[in-house]
Amino acid sequence: AGAAGSAAAGNGGGAAGIMISWVVVVNNVGVPRLTRFYGQPSVPEQRRIIDAAFRTIAGRPEGVCSFVEDEETFGKGMRVVYRVFATLYFAVCVDEAESELGIVDLIQVFVETLDRVFDSVCELDIIFNWEKAGTVLDEMVCGGMVVETSSGAVQANYGDIQRHIKQDASGSQSLQT
């Protein structure tokens, strides 16, 4: 990940000092399946961002660069980096301090980790287990900063979290009986 730069607050929902402004996963008709906003855009602004991101990337021809810069739509100095996997668009809005190729790799690692967690992830896995997909993302990006890029480490952390949840649930059940 790049060093903290002067991210622009503005239309893209960017906040000063945050390299990743948001992460959005939408399906091929624009329905959001997973979202994370770093900073505090209002709900109407979040909806505008999701819609604008989908319209922008879905309208691009195959084989073009997967980086989009549109100051009016996403804010000054902000770029959207995206990848398409099956019926899902994975889009990340970053400031100019962040490496586009690093974010392409981050998206790849995120999808690979979801594949391992869900044993070949599909859109339905994210719909019905969005909290698990969100946990995987949160292990990789925290507060707009990339904190982990190793799929193995993310998967191990995710496994630890799931074990703690099961232990807490079984402990709660034994207290109730």
UniProtKB/TrEMBL annotation:
What are the UniProt keywords, alphabetically? Membrane, Protein transport, Transport
Using the record for this protein, list the coiled-coil segments as residue ranges, or answer none.
none
Could you tell me which Pfam families the record lists for this protein? Answer: Clat_adaptor_s
Q: Name one GO biological process term.
A: vesicle-mediated transport
Manganese listed as a keyword: no
AP complex mu/sigma subunit domain: residues covered: 19-154
SUPFAM superfamilies in UniProt: SNARE-like (SSF64356)
PANTHER family the UniProt entry points to: ADAPTOR COMPLEXES SMALL SUBUNIT FAMILY
Identification of the protein by name: AP complex subunit sigma
